[in-house]
Amino acid sequence: MISPAPQASERGIRLDDVTVSFDREPAVHHVNGTFSSGSMTAIVGPNGAGKSTLLKAMVGIVQPDQGHVVLEGLSRAALGYLPQLAEVDRTFPITVSDAVGLGLWHRVGPFGAMTGSDGDIVKAALRTVGLEAMERRSIGALSVGQFQRLLFARLIVQDPQVLLLDEPFAALDELTTHDLLGLVLDWHRQGRTVIAVLHELDQVEAHFPSCLLMAREPIAWGPTAAVLTPVNLRKARGLAHDWHGEVKAARPAMATELS
Amino acid sequence: MSDIHALLIDPWIAYGFMGRALVACFALSLGCGSIGILLVLRRMSLMGDAMSHAILPGAALGFLAAGFSLWSMSLGGLLVGLMVAILAGVVSRVTTLREDASLAGFYLMSLAVGVLIISKYGSNIDLLHVLFGTILAVDTPSLLLVSTIASVTLLTLAVIYRPLICECFDPGFLRTMGGGGSLVHIIFLVLVVLNLVAGFQALGTLMAVGLMMLPAAAARLWASDVWSLCIIATAIAFLSSMAGLLISFHVNLPSGPSIILVAGLAYLGSIVFGRNGGLMKRYFPQPHYHHQSS
After folding, report:
1. With contacts defined as CB-CB under 8 Å, which chain A residues touch B165?
2. Interface probe, candidates A85, A94, A137, A155, chain B, greatest B C-beta count within 10 A
3. Domain B18-274 has what CATH class?
């Protein structure tokens, strides 16, 4: 049962019957609803539920086979995307400040020159995430946590209205998670829209007012407390079960919720 | 002293063909150094090899049409190389085959067609020329071609540098920024084929890729930013060409394999001594001088 999705406001991302497939196998089915401006939503669900795929469809990395992603009152440049760590080449020989400087792409473009004030923006972002000492280092020297801080610094430089974060805290130590979660909460307070794929249900319940639970199709979407009910979670697990012919649904966090 | 002069300097001055070969190799190194580095960084090292085989039938057809003319062979090679690259790309997008598998399929077919054409219509000497190159017969038009390709390569790389680097590092990011990734990829492929074609007369189709990949792989063990990598790779390529040409001159060996083997030595040396992840560095690290003896 799908809780009524938030009504379309003047700005936000509206999904009209979005369906995305890989090799003609649908990964995400018929998603309808709106991430309204200023909302903070967690997307949760079992492995292979299509959470990352939905995020990629929203930022335009994959094209929906059916339906539309409508940016209401937003340009593409207003979206900032945090990829999963595995999707970036962490051995590439590029310096920390150059990698963060990519966040200026919308203004500087593929050919433009960076000005001195652009350099200051990059420096300030590095200070915010605690990487100022690493500025001239190659990204290969960074730990997983430091690299995630770097990607957050790039988002700060990008200064987007909507942040789409794919597993922002996966595999991070506690301190890094704490710092980066703080940044995400700041963004929300500044009135930006935050959409994050997450696994830790405790984290979702503690910090995310809205939640979209999906297992290839949306199961529930609305206020977190109304979405993360035992009934809904069991349904999510059941749907994943049907699809894979085996129970590979529940992540540890979700398993405890279901027991 | 005069012995050294006779050994290292005289050949370039006294023999016009050696001087031209050196200039050709310099131009080749300028293009191939950077292209090789980008192939390594894009994890496409073997793609260069496959492409160098794929251009053979084009070169063979050009050869049939106009004899040993670098321009016609280059044009043929360029067209066939691009055709194979594009076919492989299209097949990997519309079928379940991955790009490396579909490329392997097409380049092997292309190579077979090339060998077939040459053995059917050319003499064996021709086949050897196309396969192994004849750098000592480089003439002024081919020098012009090779240096034009080097200039075009460096200028184009300078223009597409930022998107190209971004495409290697984080392709998803470039797509969220409005794309252009596939266009950059295609331009880069054209540059790869162009440089293979340039390497063709000097080193032959089989070994043209050697001057691209060996210096690049060696350079990766010395530096950790793209600019230094390109400069080091270019330097290794040029020095290897120089040494290889001298060896082939004095010992009377074919020039192509000599050049590539010297580059191979540079590669092996880098594996052992490379500052950036070489064996010596890994297994015999320099001690940190923390405690100065008091």
Report:
1. 94
2. A94
3. mainly alpha
Predicted ipTM? 0.80
Question: How far is A69 from chain B, CA to nearest CA, in Å?
Answer: 14
> Nearest chain B Cα to A93, which residue?
B225
pTM of the model: 0.84
Domain chopping of chain A, boundaries: 1-74+193-259, 77-160
Nearest-by-CA chain B residue for A63 = B175
Q: Where are the domains of chain B?
A: 18-274
B166 to chain A: which residues are within 8 Å by CB? 102, 105
d(CA A229, CA B176): 34
Cβ–Cβ gap B176/A110 under 8 Å? no
Which of the following CATH numbers is that of domain A1-74+193-259: 3.40.390.30, 3.40.50.2300, 3.40.50.300, 2.60.40.60? 3.40.50.300
For A84-137, the pLDDT digits (tens) are: 988 898 989 999 999 999 999 988 888 888 888 899 999 999 999 999 999 899
Q: Flag if A95 and B176 touch (Cβ within 8 Å).
A: no
Task: Determine the Cα angle at B38 with ends B32 and B43, to 5°.
Answer: 120
| pLDDT tens-place string over residues B191-241 | 999 999 888 777 887 788 999 999 999 999 998 889 999 999 999 999 999
SS3 B284: coil
Task: Report the distance separating Cα A162 and Cα A159, nearest Å.
Answer: 9
